[in-house]
Amino acid sequence: MLTITLDRLSLRDGMCVLDLGCGRGRHLRALAGRGGLSAIGLDLSFEDAAAARASFEDAPDAQGWSVTLGDALRLPFKDASFDRIICSEVLEHLPDYESALGEVARVLKPDGELAVSVPRAWPEAICWRLSEDYHNTPGGHVRIFKERELRAAIEARGFALSGRHFAHGLHSPYWWLKCALWRRRDDHPVIRAYQRFLEWDIMKRPRLTRWMEAAANPI
């Protein structure tokens, strides 16, 4: 399930791409699957970085990828190291997200491109209202971004907006259910049923749900 649309990044053979806050490697796997790239996934969590690395065990022919531990506030890379940087669902977890953006600007080449995604403000606000634990869990979301605020913070680092899109509209109700039923978020039958629906949608991509998501995304 990709949040960043890779085709919009004008990826070319020989480019070096950083998946910052790679988690368990969903975007890193997609980058490695394209071939011709040097794709590096970085995450602060040892557990997630290990899972990202393990996810390549069933793809022995994948090349040009690596996984490392690191802090977004002190990236272990030289200046102007990357042609493209992906930062998907990361900034909402960081108390000092502006320092992370400064590090991104430092390690990205002058002609590079940055792709950022964060949760949409109003669906996220519903989650916060439904559950205090949702945003007070260690490692959870510490802020709700307004689009204007996020854009201003990124542009202050010298970036210019080249495009935007919305994704995963069908997933917001899933998180509302998990927040409303927080104490049983992992085993409630309604939540498990919705999760199976989302997994079926991701794997099968039937036309009906594609239309439903296309209608939900702008909202």
What features would you describe in this structure?
The protein has 219 residues and is α/β, with parallel strands linked by helices. Helix content is 40%, strand content 15%. It has helices at 26-34, 46-54, 97-107, 121-130, 132-136, 147-155, 172-180, 189-204, 207-216, and strands at 16-20, 38-43, 65-69, 82-88, 108-117. Strands 3-2-1-4-5 form a 5-stranded parallel sheet. Strand 2, helix 2 and strand 3 (65-69) form a beta-alpha-beta unit. Helix 4 (121-130) packs parallel to helix 7. It is globular and about 45 Å long. 25% of the residues are buried. The mean pLDDT is 96.
Concise overview:
By secondary structure, the chain is an alpha/beta fold. It contains 9 helices and 5 strands. It has a 5-stranded parallel sheet with strand order 3-2-1-4-5.
List the helices and strands and how they pair.
Elements: E1 16-20, H1 26-34, E2 38-43, H2 46-54, E3 65-69, E4 82-88, H3 97-107, E5 108-117, H4 121-130, H5 132-136, H6 147-155, H7 172-180, H8 189-204, H9 207-216
Parallel strand pairs: 1-2, 1-4, 2-3, 4-5
Helix pairs in contact: 4-7
Fraction in beta strands: 15-25%
Strand runs, count:
5
**Which series of helices and strands comes N to C?**
EHEHEEHEHHHHHH
Total number of helices: 9
Task: Flag low-confidence runs.
Answer: none
Helix content: 40-55%
**What is the 3D shape?**
globular
